[in-house]
Amino acid sequence: MHVEAYHKVSTLEEAYELLQTHDSAVLLGGGAWIRTGSKPIEHLIDLKELGLNTITETDQSIIIGAMVSLRDMETHQGIKQLGGGFLSEALSQILGVAFRNTATIGGSVMGKYSFSDVLTPLLVLDVSLHFYHAKTMSLASFLSQRGRFRDILTAISIDKTPCKAMFKKVSNTTLDFSIVNVAVSLVKGRHKIAVGARPSIAVLAESVMRWLDTIEKPSEMILEEAGERVVADIKLGSNQRAKEAYRQQLVKTYVTRGLKEVHGL
Amino acid sequence: MKVVNQYVPSVDGKGIMLGRPAFTDDLAEPNSLIVKVLRSPHAFAKIKGIDTKAAEALEGVELVLTHKNVPQKAFTRAGQGYPEPSPHDKFILDRYVRYVGDEVAAVAAVDEKTAEEALRLIEVDYEVLEPVLDLETAIDHSSVIHPEEGIREMFPIGFEPKRNIAASYAMHVGDVDETLKSCDQVVRETFYTQAQAHAMMEPHTVNARMDYQNRLLIYSSTQTPFHVRRILSQALDVPISRIRVIKPRVGGGFGGKQALHGEMLVALTTLRTRKPAKMVFSRQEVFESSYSRHPMRIDIALGAMKDGTLKAMDCKILSDTGAYGEHALTVFMVAGSKVLPLYNKVDAVRFGGQVVYTNKTPAGAYRGYGAIQGNFALESAIDMLCEQLEIDPIQFRQKNMIAEGESSPIFEIMGEGTEGTAMTMETCKLDTCVQRGLELIDWHNKYPRRILPNGRIKSVGMAIAMQGSGIPYIDMGAATIKLNDDGFYNLMVGATDIGQGSDTILTQIAAEVLMTTVDRVIVYSSDSDLTPFDTGAYASSTTYVSGNAVLATAEKMKLMLLEEAAKALGCARESVRFDGQVFTTDSEETITLSQLSNRLYYNEDQQQLTATASYVGTKSPPPFMAGLIEIDLDPETGEFDIVDYVSVVDCGTAINPKLAIGQIEGGIVQGLGMAHFEDVKYTKQGRLITNDFLTYKIPTQQSVKNLQTEIVHSYEASGPFGAKSVGEIGIDTPPAALANAVYHATGVRITSLPITAEKRMAGITAKKGEQQS
Amino acid sequence: MKITFMLNDRKVTWDALPGESLLDFLRRHHVVSVKKGCDGSTCGVCTVLMNHKPVLACTVLAMRCTGEHIHTVEGLADEVEKISEAFGIEGADQCGFCNPGIALSLYALKRENSNAEASEIRQYLEGHLCRCSGYQAQVKAALRYIGGGQS
Predict the structure, then answer these.
(1) Where do the domains of chain A lie, and which CATH numbers do they carry?
(2) Are A182 and A171 in contact (CB under 8 A)?
(3) Which chain B positions have a beta carbon within 8 Å of C91's beta carbon?
(4) What pLDDT is attached to residue B18?
């Protein structure tokens, strides 16, 4: 990788200034995927020294600094409690331990990677993103925004309200990107269903979620219908990992299974 | 036996784990020029013009090589016996580029950044030609991939470059068409196999320097150092005596390093600049621009009688060698010669076909070397035939498969590129392998499938396989043993340890004969100046061929020692006994080996004791195995877990049982990767998409969690201490065993590799559709 | 630009380039136990320990190592010898190109979880691709090492 100037900043303000001054500046989180780009980087801003690498817990939420590694998230006791441990489980399936020791949650969110196994499970939790300048926003609304977001993510916070949740990654090997991934949660009778690596970026199946919320004690048949509705509702496509038809089959199956699991069926 | 067939840790495991410099790039001169290659963006093009002025002018650039300033003499990169059965169809750099990733030009510069910058400054004017990307339309395609003059075959191999045919072959025994007509049941099917990537962990690496005698010294991560020396000498017109090739520790090969990859360009750089130079393939280059397995289309027909007697086998293969014809004929022939003799009792057998050029990454040697492709087709078709005959596939195999004391006419007819060698199976424990395999996997309680309460399906499948042990009358190995003062030995072998453990097992063989321990035998492989000749690590030859050479050398050394001990003790050689440490005469006078050695080097009758012996096989005794798999399949997604893979192998005596099991299990897991997900994808324009470990997946720690591997008792009298080969046999069974298990689970017969979850699901869905309509 | 960090418990000050990976940086300074397998965060071969945790040297920028503790097998020879003994006993050695990285991960695993079972070992080591072995002997060797030499 070719870098012209490497900036190790000591304050958020310094990083923000550089980011605003240089149109081509790149923020360095974990650096896990930064070298996949072939273009030389003129200004690389290293956020390492900003103390954004801690996880704190309040009664309502877990606040995870943007520079916390995926491995530290995965092994955090509080995070292991979320949704019966489904988030830790999801994180444990991302490449290897050494990779997860480097990759950060900030990079995983800001990269908006279509193959992400982080965004899908986070989408079915109540996740807020905290920026240096911009207002706090939900993960779902951040993901739906287009264009470059010229701000610094400082932390994400996850609501701790107990929920049941499930995550499934379908892949050829554990080190592979997902062919598709599915997350389902149930919080106080409210459903969330997310599908990622479609192959495009993870989304919530909003209309199916709202429909399910209206049904009291959904039967197995309803949950099977929900699987089919998700396939109809969100866009799935083909790429070298799988064709659309196979993704549809997988999404239908795992959405239904996930819903059954969170409903204890 | 005290050392052979015993637990002995690898002689080099500790040093390598401790990170001692061992591999090719660890030994490069620190100030080496960096050699980088400009690679073709087109699948097929003619270079109309190439402007290197700007690159040459860049500060730090020492050399730019193009087809205009390199020798234009066709050669083959394949590291094979000479004359090679591969066509000489490659130039160091050529006016044509024949696949995306082919070499256009090379740059040598003071550092990587400068070399890369220089590559960007080279301007190439291409005339883009229509590529041939499908093996089935390659023959007589309007695009001729090798239209150039000066290419040739070394002896008749059916080379017809104007028709895009690299090699062709046909043989038959009996009248296949008539025999098939007379059969009660005939099964015909077409199978496809893919271009598996070797994916060895150490990328292809080479460095060169001029030594203080002004000779060219090359370090190369090669499986065939002596072939590298010969081919470099021929293609570069440098006397062979002026080249020294050292093979340091090699980080895996599997056939992918049985060829020259960077050697030509690095050698040429050093010869021209007189400076050290090096090249380490990027992972993308390893995938795109080295070698892959030959993809094949295999048409097979089998005919049998109602009583389960197999009568005829007909096998027609179209093999895709990609842009260059390395190993084209020989891999193709092995798909028949090391597969069809499994069923040796047929009345008629026919084998033939063509190996075609396409504008894809060249295919080359790869563990299994055709046998895995042929085995997938044959062992799938056998199960299909049994299904039609309503005969148990195990009983069918037991009735028809080759047995000890038997032969097959194929051995005599088909060699590797030439005629073969008749041989009788002195050892063939295939029956025991099958029997034991059935027990280990609990076949009778699991065959063919069980549907679990949660809807998942557990099923089993199996296949049998054979390989060879070197190429008779071609593969040659030699060893030298040198006695040192204090009585320890050096063992010098040309045999090439590429991670399979040959240094360890050859040491064991020497130590066993000399009745000493492995720490008293210091092995060194392979250095074209210092070690005797060996054709290299391929064709499952090292244990059998090089092992026999070590055995003969150690025997020779033992005789020399007895001779010298007798002199020292003043008696006849016949009256001296040796136990590895002490020589004792009939009259109980003694001298220790240490004393004798010190006497030889310091005191009396001073002389160096050195023994050298060679071995060339006169046959190639096949190892055999049964491979059995149990899968647990989800019929709603097509996904499965591999519950168990049982391998029972007849490899003769295992010189080092744990390392032999490592060879088998490594082969099994590599074969499973090919069987179910190692997929090779190209764009419509012929660019390889699966060119890194993100897109091309190989099995991980989590892929196969239970392997049961056993070696049956067997003693091959012609092998060293009863050994046959074990390096390749492990890879052959997984594709067919898996295909058969998937069929048992789902009723879906998948005939093209890899058998992915997506294909399985598509099959299940289609089957459901059939049943409903 | 000069950077100062702790390599195998000794303070070193070496020249680093702005975009240089820790992998290229270490090999350029003749720390050759750290191998280059893919240079793309996917094979595990170049694993080193950063503050006692395994990281991929190809993925960490050298510049980022200022003030950090980096360990390679050269600096943990006693422990690596133990791992190597276990590999020897189980016949887990093949080409060995991936072994320095695996040894470092195993050492880190034992520190994190001194009772790791086979399934935990497989999960912890899964980032280390090995094309030679079929992995089974590695797991046995890992169990032996973690069990203090017992299988």
Answers:
(1) 3-50 (3.30.43), 55-159 (3.30.465.10), 164-262 (3.30.390.50)
(2) no
(3) 7, 9-10, 656-659, 661-662
(4) 97
